[in-house]
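Repro case for the chain-ordering regression, as requested:
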Amino acid sequence: MKRFRFLAGKLGWAAFTILFVLVLNFFLFRVLPGDPARAGVHDPRLKKDAIEAIRVRFGLDKPVINCFESLNPLKFGSCSVNPLETQFFIYVGNLFKGEMGISYHTNRPVSEILAERLWNTILLIGAGQILSIIIGVLFGLFAAWKARTSIDYGALIVSLVAWSLPTFWLGIILLFWGSNQGLPIGGKATPGLSSYPLLVQWGDIARHMFLPTLTYTIVYMGEYMLIMRSSLLDVLSEDYILTAKAKGLNTFQVLKDHALKNAMLPLVTVIAINLGFTVAGAVQIESVFSWPGLGLAIYEAVNRRDFPVLQGAFLLIAVAVILANLIAELMYSYLDPRVQTE
Amino acid sequence: MEAASTKTTEAQRQLAARFLDFWRVFRRNRMGLVGLAMLAVIVIVAVFAEVLAPYDATAPVDATAADVYRPPSAAHWLGTDDAGQDVFSNFIFGARVSLIVGFFAAFISVFIGGVLGIAAGFYGGRVENFLMRFTDVMLVIPDLPLMVVIVALTKPSLLNIIFVIGLLGWTTTARIVRSQTLAVKSRKFVLRARAIGAGNGHIIRHHILPLVMPILVVNAVLVVSLAILNESTLSFLGLGDPTALSWGQMLNYAFGRGAMSTGAWWALVAPGFGIVWVVLGLTLFGHGLEQVLNPRLEAHHLMKPRPIVRHEATGKPLLHERRGRVPDEAPILVEVKNLSISYISDGKPPARAVENVSFTLREGELMGLVGESGCGKTTLMLGLLRLLPAAGQIVDGEVWFSGRELTALTETEMEDVRWKGISIIFQGAMNALNPVRTVGDQIAEAIVKHNPLMKGAALEARVSELLDLVGISPEHKNHFPHQYSGGMRQRAMIAMALACNPQVVIADEPTTALDVMIQAQVLELLDSLRKKLGLSIIFVTHDLGVVAEMCDSVLVMYGGVTAEYSDVDTVYNLAKHPYTQELLKAFPDLTHPEKRLASIPGYPPRLDDLPAGCRFAPRCPVAFERCRVEAPAIHQLGEKHFASCHLVEENSLTTK
Amino acid sequence: MQDYFLEVQRLKKYFAAGRPGFFNRAREHVHAVDGVDLQLKRGEVIAMVGESGCGKSTLALTLMGLEEPTEGRIVFEAKEITHASEHDRKLLRQRIQMVFQDPYESLNPTQTIEEIVAEPLDVHGLTHGKAEREARVVKALEDAGLKPASTYLPRFPHQLSGGQRQRVVIAGALVLEPHLLIADEPVSMLDVSIRAEILNLLADLRQTRQISIILITHDLGTCGYFADRIAVMYLGRIVEIGPTGEVLSNPQHPYTKALLSVVPVPNPRLRRQRLILQGETPNPIHLPSGCRFHPRCPIAVERCRAEDPAYVTVGQSHLAACWEAGKQA
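-- result from build under test --
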């Protein structure tokens, strides 16, 4: 029962956050000067019937939402409108149908563009996160264990420097270096390899992934190391570590069986909180390396003022981060027995 | 009016004094100093840009194609950029833009985060719930994409960028400030302030803010660096203010306009270097601030122990060899001879926490180790097991346990002695048990370590048996420590201590934090186990009453040395050391409730500041001249009665 | 009917247990203080004794007005203060003061001793001019045994020892010249050799200033020798109350007897049979039926399960809430 309540609470919370993002997304793109619908309506590139199609699609002829005729909050409208006939619910309804509008630039449905790009971003962030967590945790472990030695200070300085690097700049520098080493400088795959065996294609993708993943790993490893170090320092000065030593366990056993899990717990929270920030890294890295993910989509959309794509990409990223956060929180509750039973 | 002005100058003087105190500590933090210096350099560069820059970056240039991307030269130290402008000059003016955005945006963030955090933490209830839920939502929404969206939809002016970064960057600050406010609010001095009648405003100003400030300052430094990074990222993505050339904007132009393909590394390296310089400076400064404002020991239980040395104790060996050992008593299990332990810290003389302590423990004996806080009793016990903290060092003496000298063993050999030979029950069972592992699992771990063959059903049965022994129903073995009550945890700790059938159990204040009735239950349990299993127990406590009721022999410690050591009856009825006598008078006795309690004037000595001569002399009612200059030797007064006091010298049985 | 300095009638303080959630509407209550009657004369010292969870600390906070009572009345100096207004409450603070358990925690580490002791004066705007303020701070510190006070004024709490800090806390309470002092475990965090001087200080204050003291403690040993009366609390209720000598020498409630029997006596020749209660204090959310002590009571009879005992007078102002009280003398 307790567990069910806990789960229901977390799920409900994630759903609420997603709703908040939906509302935010809806209003941002209508309140701010760059209103996509209006921009679309005024887009000189579009024909008259295309403009009309946009009007109908976004329901621009309809009231914004019940009781409000337009975005001016002081201008009340009728509250008895059919909610399904308002802009907001048409927007939400369209989203549920998977319809996010048409890209101004390519004239393709936004959902189609984003669908193929989502996986590339997940691939990049996944690989980068896993590597930076592993390396960060290991470095942090050593630094804390050997606290106040030159190993510790060295690891600390490296982490602080890594933390201070602007992601995109590190990407540019690595790109500069990589292009001289004959590494691919952009994209996800070399064109024209699709007839080759799968293994060759994967190898090609891996070669393309090398520099972006390296950039990602360097930038985020520093932070994980710092957190692991400080969390482990806390754990290692706890009384139960002394108990474990008094029981006769050796250093390795104490680290493995008593320190690691306890120290990882705060790290899981940080990883969850950090997911929002790691997306920032992906946007920058994808922009530098032309990695065809959501981040690049944002970069291109910004430079082409392609608002439907920007709106869709932001929504997708936000929802993905919220879900990933949910998973991290559930994982935490599974790892820490104190969460569910208290 | 006059009073008000003197009050402000007084306050200013105090503030200045506090700042000086802070600076004295901060000065010694190398990381923080380097960071501060890096920041100072870049702030000077930004302020005096007009003077320092060789070219005016704000003036339009008539550049020809030949001027574009010229490599570094005497005229252009860092070459020229895509518009033929001097990169070095742009770099200097760029510092100004980046710093302005960073500081102003961070100011907005820290202000909002600070106010929301304090409001949420202090007022609690609905306010907190609403604010924190809102913060949680904002925290989860990825901030950079949101910034991109907002700036893309509005005009990319410097002011807009400052506001967008500032208005979205407060979430972490709010969280940190809230949790710090909660922590401060729950402290007793806030309750005390309420009790004297202070209102919310007064409490926030005088009690919450001063303790939240250090953390807010450290966080502010971090927020500034994040804001600078965010500004450069936005500019790099093409959302910068085209009229204000920041470092990010420089990179955007260089990267977008062919610096890569022309190999113009200078146009890429210089602005990036600027960002790294500022952010690293801030990070180092922030790290240094944190170390100074929230100092932590950075010492832990797995650090390399200090080597054991002999005969480095500062005093001369004091215990004369004992004569007339009684042969018909039970065999001796533990014999500690002249054990001395010091705490070593940089730049200070060693703190002589334990000096020349000797005692013997026989089979089945229950010895009480009594003393006030800081008298070295816990250090002595940790020293026996060689579990001293990193700063602790055994500087002299021997510990004999079943034929082996423990200070001479290797670390691996010592691991075998621990728990199987001598186990220990720590004071706070809540902290001594690992919170994320079940109690049964932690008991089993000790068994398996010393008997790897025990597994499966036999192991389970043994764990159940042990829990049953201490009166815990075995079905609780799969529960976590936080699901136990305080008394149960201490019982579980006892079960764990008995897991490997040790010969000696050290109980280090096992009942201190417990209620009287639970305390009595635990003591009763220890006493019955001792009889049932024939255990030898060293019982560490500050409670003379408990010792009188349970123990066979008593070692009274004061300031790291033996005050008196004898059987329990002698200590309570024929105490010879003035400290023992005074301590007994200070202890309330229900059988004589009318007796006015005597108190010992003064305070126990600090181990890093011990008096010359006898350590008890400053508080001793009968001290004389000699006590202040010469530390007394330990004199044997009877079969098994020792006291270290000059006054008992004439009764000593020991030869001089 | 005698006029008491402080009179507490049927005082109750319940806390809601747990957070009200979406799924649990029906709220349960922690019965922290559950019907306490208490009278105190001017200059009298009463010790409230009990284990953790018996409600003694909540009682203290409720008397201080730091917690709002759920039911009952508190009359102080002939004026009802149960639900005093903000304004009255602030005036009351000058007359009722509190000393907390942990001298390490109850002093703000960023304030100097002078600021700490002067704070009550500043809050109530009691002094005019710097000289008067300092004079009162110095007097309070010296009354609390910190002499010469001037050497302590500019120091910070961390520069003082535990005993000195507790004296600063006491000085901070004395500076308002209260009539009633509530001392919540004032010595339990201190070393044995220091305890006596703090207790003696409190005893002297009571002599010289006629301050009434409510001493909250878990230790019968410490209260035994300077309280006029002892009240033993169990699960939110006073189970026995009477003159100190009476209660210590002739306890009537089985819980008092048990508590007395487990107080260690510092004399190895007096090892005696102890009456150790089994189990732990039940949680104060679901109180046992009848007498709240019956599940752990060694002499419980059938009646105890069903009926909550009323107070039985067993001697001169000595009451015990037990059906068996006064039967075996």
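Ordering looks correct now. The two ends of chain C are 30 Å apart (CA to CA).
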